[in-house]
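Q: Hi! First time asking for a complex rather than a single chain. Here are the components, and I think there are two in total. Is that enough to go on?
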Amino acid sequence: MNTVRDLFQSGLYWPGVVVAVVVAVGAGLLSVPVVLRRLAFIGQGVSHAAFGGVGLAAVLGLAAGSAASDAGMLGVVAAFCIASALGISWLSDRSRVQTDTAIGIVLAVSMGVGFLLLRHAAEIAPPGARPPGVESVLFGSLLTVRWIDAILGGAAMAGVVVALWWLRRPMLFWAFDDSASGAFGVRDGVMKTMLLVLLAVTVIVTMKLAGIVLTTALLVLPGAIALRVSDRLGPVLWASVGAALLGVLGGIVVSLELDWQTGPAIVLVLAALYGVAWAGGAALRRAGS
Amino acid sequence: MGGSSETRAIECRGVGFTYPSVGSPSAEAALVGVTFDVREGERLGVLGPNGGGKSTLLKLILGELEPDAGTVRVCGTTPARARREGLVGYLPQRIGAGRAWPISVRQAVAMGVEVRVAPWKRSTARQRAAVDRALELVGIADLASRPVGRLSGGQLQRAMIARAIAIEPKLLVLDEPTVGVDVTGQRRFSELITRLHAELGLTVVTVSHELTTIAASSDRVACLRQSLHFHDAPKGLTPEVLAEVFRHDVEAVLGGEVHVDAHAAADFDDPTHTRGHTHGHSCGHDHGGGA
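A: Yes, that's all I need. Here is the structure of the assembled complex.
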């Protein structure tokens, strides 16, 4: 039985904790525009596209467990996710119905293909290699996170945060009011593509920890919680990052103590936080009025 | 068109534009041979039915589209460059975007200024002063710290106008500014634009299918239906002119209300029609008295 004390005694969990912290910062920041621009479904599509990527990488023999194959797998998945994000963006410039349809198709096809590829990978795997189990890909597992993931994930999330800081003004204008931002010199297409790429990168890094199915939760719940707490931009961004940190760290503790999968534990902690924020916000409003 | 050599805020020469057709071989041109000048400090109203090419003309002026034929110059340069240099302030038609955002009125008004600041710099004191002045000019300085979600429609529109003038543009472009605005709101809007024009010496281009808005805040009116026809506002807008511009589009012009051409045409001649007319009517209110 794993406990939180094991976390400190064995080094096994530290890479997962590092990934959890860096992911919480990036996902917490991105969560606010995702909620306000209603991008949750796109995030869902992108994260499910990763399933196909994982399957492909497994068949290519990139799931052998060595650092090099881990990095290769991350590359294949990243290419899959970013390509699907750009594909969805390209389609959504045409018509609204097509966006939803496109996401639905990408999501379903990736899941189907990914599942078959993973099974095929398990069949053809040489002795000693262990392709990732479907369950850990879908729902996440702290133990599958290795130092190479933590290092690459940390670098990727640092890149996401720097890009968000660099683009904060045009990105905010575009996200707030894209009916006018173009006329004020903001490159709308660049903003949209950049947000989707940052989203895809965050999804990829989050995936091993929270799993494909539950990665969307990290992109939606922190922002939704924060918007319950404040109506000022600065406090909302801090609250969103704070909620994401509480969610992932609390989720890790819960998953270790109760021997749950990491992803579901994180989601349930975040959902509990949302309940508290909802009730607290309602109480505050009553007291204020 | 004036023939002097003073600087032109807008110069369009033989501008044509056809949207690329998807699937249909017979694409109709949105604009054909549009030639006009707007002098600096002038207020031009562009009146026309829905689908008459107003949005296309705006996109060309804002540099979001390139003309198929002819040239567009804004403030003596290309539209894209004029936009980059902050010479053009823009009020979008769709107001209310992003009202769920945790953004204060001041933050929203400052956005146009902020995107012109390099990522590693802070906005200058002068830029922040321009934002304060814009808030005061449109009369919402007291709302500066309020979240945008708690503004009324009219207040939010003022904030968006403040956002446009905070970059200290030479040209102000208003896209259908009074859609869904009641008669009192329309009057207040026209008064605000008239005041801003007087105080800032802006060139103002208003695009609308509402005659009230156009007549009350323009020196000159261009009727647009694929091509342009000029008239002095408001006395040149005779019933015949309007009937010709809007032809069978009277229903669309009147915001979806069902009116027959004969009725609309009759309104123009009726001197008893005043501004207090509550019908949300687009045609002819100021026709008799505004000379």
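A: The domain at 4-288 of chain A is CATH 1.10.3470.10 (ABC transporter involved in vitamin B12 uptake, BtuC). Let me know if you'd like any chain examined more closely.
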